[in-house]
Amino acid sequence: MSPDNYLYLAALLFTLGACGVLLRRNAIVVFMCIELMLNAANLALVAFSRMHGNLDGQILAFFVMVVAAAEVVVGLAIIVMLYRSRHSASVDDASLMKL
Amino acid sequence: MESLIGLLVAAPLLGALVLLTGGRRLDRAGHWLGTALAATSFVLAVVLFFDLLGRADGDRTLHQHLFSWVPVAGFQADIAFQLDQLSMTFVLLITGVGSLIHLYSVGYMEHDPRRRRFFGYLNLFLAAMLLLVLADNYLLLYAGWEGVGLASYLLIGFWQDRPRAATAAKKAFIVNRVGDIGLSIAIMLMFTTFGTFAFGPVLSSAAETGEGTLTAIGLMLLLAACGKSAQVPLQSWLGDAMEGPTPVSALIHAATMVTAGVYLVVRSGAIFNAAPDAQTVVIVVGAVTLVFGAIVGCAKDDIKKALAGSTMSQIGYMMLAAGLGPIGYAFAIMHLVTHGFFKAGLFLGAGSVMHGMNDEVDMRKYGGLRKYMPVTFITFGLAYLAIIGFPYLSGFFSKDEIIYAGFAKGGTQGWILGSVMLLGAALTAYYMTRIMLLTFFGEKRWQPDAHGHEPHPHESPATMTIPMIVLAIGSVGAGFAFNLNESFAHWLEPVTGLAHGDSPVGHGTVSLAATAVMVIGVGAAYLQYGRRPAPVVAPAGSFVTRAARRDLLQDDFNHAAFVTPGTYLTRGLVYVDHKLVDGVVNGLAAAFGGLSGRLRRVQNGYARSYAVSMFGGAAVLIAVTLLMRAV
Amino acid sequence: MSFPLLTATALAPAIGAVATAAVPAARRTAAKWTALGFSVVTVVFAAAVLLRFDTGPGADRYQLTESLTWIRDFGVTYELGVDGIGVAMIGLTAILIPFLIGAGWNDADPKEGETPQGRRWRPTQGFFALILLVEAMVIMSFAATDIFLFYIFFEAMLIPMYFLIGGFGDRAGSGDEAGQARQRSYAAVKFLLYNLAGGLVMLAAVIGLWVATNDQLGSGTFSLAAIADAKAAGELTFGTGTERWLFLGFFFAFAIKAPLWPLHTWLPNAMGESTAPVAVLITAVVDKVGTFAMLRFCLGLFPEASNWATPAVIVLSLVSIVYGALLALGQRDMKRLIAYASISHFGFIVLGIFAMTSQGHSGATLYMVNHGIATAALMLVAGFLISRRGSRLIADYGGVQKTAPVLAGTFLVGGLATLSLPGLGPFVSEFLVLVGTFSRYKAAGIIATVGIVLAALYVLVLYQRTMTGPVKPGLEKLPDLRMRELAVVAPLIALLIFLGVYPKPVTDIVNPAVEHTLSDVNKTDPQPNVTVTEAEGASHE
């Protein structure tokens, strides 16, 4: 199987994630979609690693996982707090940053 | 002796300083202090005068150098005085008449709560005027020149709570300032031409300079002289200046300040002698003013304004004489001195009349006052005879000499000038007789004022009558004394030069003609005002009369030509400054503000729209990178 | 190294600012006296500068120099030094500040009924501390001979000025409290942004200068002395284009500060809205840095470009003179009137500088000193008047001389100084500027003389409307000047008279510096066309 197919899959997953981030209002779902995008990137990195025959891509993929884990910790905490204060997990409700 | 010159100026200056800063403590004795210091100056002047007389003819110039005023590379201005025959004459006139008027003011201003300040201003005026005539360079003269302007501003506007007085004062200062432009440009021209503006070097090397430059300097000096001496076209302030207390009118607007222009022209004789074109303009200005002033004087019912018109006219004579060059300088100054006597006498007389008449100035409400104020009547009458040129009184000698000098100019010009001056003499006789008849003769025409107070004319106190008597004596005798062996002209000769010119008519003929036109003028006035009672309300009069009552429309002209356009210009500029100049700045600020306002909308707070821009940005970056690769 | 006198002169008010700010909130009076004390100490130091300054022939151009390395990599040094012009300006600054503090004694007190909000609420302390801070910075910028050092203080003084304008109004504007606050903050922001914009352009030029020196000398420098040496040795030459751009960069900033038409519109707002002492601080002290810097930096560093720009600058200054005077005539607000009069006077100063004659330069320097004192006298008295009636509008006054003759008298003297009456200081300087200009540019000299008539008009119209005529209702009980106010104004008037009669002490200090500046720009005075033979009898005893 050509490694190209992994890349197509990664692109598909990334697009799905991006569409989810842009279109869904629920913060949890947006969050999941971000995870999906990160994993799409991981998939691409691993595929590249395989194509070029070195480990750089895989090392990078580990970094991404660590970042994703950290993000889960911080992001979920924020979402929970947001839900507690506003009784909603919609990202459009939290638009107070504009002046 | 030289060291006394500075004291001449210092004495009244000290008086001004003490009286103006001394506060109310000096209210009780301030006026006597001011008078004493003016008299001190006069005594010093007399001492110096006899010192000069004791010297040889060519040695009558004293110098006193006090200190260097503005030492800057290439620019030397000193506080230094020069006393010669010309300055001496002025100093005697200024301090003499000045002291008399101080004395007169003691009585005249007796009931004014601000009398101390009045004397402070009078002293300031004397100091400035003395500085003007004693300066040994044009810059110091300029300082005195403006100082005189300031003193006159303060004195005209002395009754500041009267809006008309305040306006008149401002007008006088500003019209004078227009003239001052001339003096400052003249000084700058001297500096660039000669590298100095001290009298000695400038006047002695004037002859070596190009005529064009000298004409320019001369014309600028003339502009200055027009401002200070109320000559056409800068004459408009003098009539309004009569809003000041009467002693001020006598001191400033008759005897001294307005003569400063004549002094300037005579002092700068060397420049004018070498610039015939400038001289011609001086003559024209003098001739026009002498007729202009006389016409205005004929129409005014306000006694002081009529006298002001007369002053303008008489100074026109002097200016004309000064424009004639060496044949006229000495006589310009001689007429100036005699005029100082009789015009001061006339104004003080007018003040005395007003003093007795509750400050009424309208001559149509006088009448028959000779019975009530004998001293005033006699002194005023003598001054009147002097000014109209009654034979063997002061004006007769000095005015005839000027008329004669006019004829001596030669050619058609001489005839024109002589005739104009004879016309002026007739008009002088007319308006002065009119004043005399309306004030002192006929029936009493005064009525109770709005409060029901009827004026009770009475003679003025001694402090006022003594100066009038002294001035009357001067009016009678000065001309005769000056004319003995031409003593006055010879006294001034080392400074001004003296020439007799070439007159087509003789001295006797001129005198005869002048006396004849005087009789005509007096007769005309008698026919109009002496034979039948004068109406209390002025008749409408012809167009000329009405124009003359409005000072021949001078203010209307100035308003239309300068004031109104100036007002619109300032208003327009205020608008432009606000809308255009500031508008560009504010517009720039508003443009930035607006732009940020637009850009701010992008930051709408929705996380998903930020995500779109992130994706879009990333996509654009990738696209650009790929395109760059491809190219 | 000897005692760093210039640093001490600048440090005294800076320490004073800190000390004043540290006074506890309740002890307002103590804060005032502290500020006054330190400003007097500054006067003492400035007097020492004056005495130590050598005006004899062969004396150094820059004296009392101090030099320390500061940022070695960029060639920035801490170099101070004064020439005669700098001494005169430091003297003016030091002398004026105590009077400004005296005049503004009660300006920053809490309003009646206003209660202090806690321990930290100290507007009075802040007001006087800021004034002293501005003084320190102004003195530093007069003393700095390193361009970068100058730039820092030139810009930094905007900060205290911003707070002085925006934070302390004269409570006499039109409209309600909020409206006044809005106008004040508009004026303060306008002042700040306008001057910052100028400073930004100047910064670009400063960097450009560094690049040019770095390219040609191997190491960049900001030191005036080093640049002058390199120029004299021929190691440093600016290309024509470079020099002109650098000149324009510097000139733009100074023209805003000066302020020169058409960059003047911030001044009327700033002077109108601030209290009278702050208005004086702006026009008499801070703005002088602009004209001073034109003399020292524009002419000194870029002589060719200065000559190139002269025609344009002269036209701008003539426009300033006439335009400022005409606008002064059209004002209804007396403080704005004085502001426009100042614009007209700054036109004269710039005209004198760019006439490039020794009379013009001496006159311009003298003008800076005289204008400072004259405007202070006029503006402070106007401030006293405004604080009595609570209005800046000319139309609200009339007949003041009847109820407050001393106030009216001092106002008139201040006005007469503004219109350059002989006998008062400004006359000497104005005439020098006119003569200096006329001897090179006849037409410009003549146009500028029109300014003297217009000056008479706006001053006398102002005096007539406010002081003469019948007493306006509401002014019947107007109190005359109090002792404190008289103590502020009387010495200023005495100083004006002294400088009008005997300006020699100042011209003696200024003259050598003027010669140096003229030789910087390679100009000599025009010579008279007639050599005068000394007339007999004209010799002086």
From TrEMBL, chain A:
Its EC number is 7.1.1.-. Belongs to the complex I subunit 4L family. Its main location: membrane. NCBIfam families: PRK05715.1-2, PRK05715.1-3, PRK05715.1-5. InterPro entries: NADH_UbQ_OxRdtase_chain4L/K, NUOK/Mnh_C1-like. This is NADH-quinone oxidoreductase subunit K. It is found in: Cell membrane; Membrane. GO terms for cellular component: NADH dehydrogenase complex; plasma membrane. It comes from the Bacteria. The lineage of its organism: Bacteria, Bacillati, Actinomycetota, Actinomycetes, Kitasatosporales. The chain crosses the membrane at residues 6-23, 28-48, 60-83. It is an enzyme of class 7 (translocase). One of its GO terms (biological process) is ATP synthesis coupled electron transport. Keywords: Cell membrane, Membrane, NAD, Quinone, Translocase, Transmembrane, Transmembrane helix, Transport. Pfam families: Oxidored_q2. One of its GO terms (molecular function) is NADH dehydrogenase (quinone) (non-electrogenic) activity. It is a multi-pass membrane protein. NDH-1 shuttles electrons from NADH, via FMN and iron-sulfur (Fe-S) centers, to quinones in the respiratory chain. The immediate electron acceptor for the enzyme in this species is believed to be a menaquinone. Couples the redox reaction to proton translocation (for every two electrons transferred, four hydrogen ions are translocated across the cytoplasmic membrane), and thus conserves the redox energy in a proton gradient. NDH-1 is composed of 14 different subunits. Subunits NuoA, H, J, K, L, M, N constitute the membrane sector of the complex. It catalyses: a quinone + NADH + 5 H(+)(in) = a quinol + NAD(+) + 4 H(+)(out).
From TrEMBL, chain B:
This is NADH-quinone oxidoreductase subunit L. Keywords: Membrane, Transmembrane, Transmembrane helix. It is found in: Endomembrane system; Membrane. GO terms for cellular component: endomembrane system; membrane. One of its GO terms (biological process) is electron transport coupled proton transport. It is a multi-pass membrane protein. Residues 135-420 form the NADH:quinone oxidoreductase/Mrp antiporter transmembrane domain. Residues 69-119 form the NADH-Ubiquinone oxidoreductase (complex I) chain 5 N-terminal domain. GO terms for molecular function: NADH dehydrogenase (ubiquinone) activity; NADH dehydrogenase activity. Pfam families: Proton_antipo_M, Proton_antipo_N. It comes from Streptomyces harbinensis.
TrEMBL record, chain C:
Residues 1-21 form the signal peptide. Residues 520-541 are annotated as: Disordered. One of its GO terms (biological process) is ATP synthesis coupled electron transport. Its main location: membrane. It is a multi-pass membrane protein. The chain crosses the membrane at residues 31-51, 80-105, 125-154, 191-212, 245-266, 278-302, 308-330, 337-356, 368-386, 406-424, 444-463, 484-502. Residues 520-532 have a biased composition (Polar residues). GO terms for cellular component: endomembrane system; membrane. InterPro entries: NADH_Q_OxRdtase_chainM/4, NADH_UbQ_OxRdtase, ND/Mrp_TM. The keyword Protein biosynthesis does not apply. Residues 144-454 form the NADH:quinone oxidoreductase/Mrp antiporter transmembrane domain. It is found in: Endomembrane system; Membrane. Keywords: Membrane, Signal, Transmembrane, Transmembrane helix. GO terms for molecular function: NADH dehydrogenase (ubiquinone) activity; NADH dehydrogenase activity; ubiquinone binding. It comes from the Bacteria. The keyword Signal applies. This is NADH-quinone oxidoreductase subunit M. The lineage of its organism: Bacteria, Bacillati, Actinomycetota, Actinomycetes, Kitasatosporales.
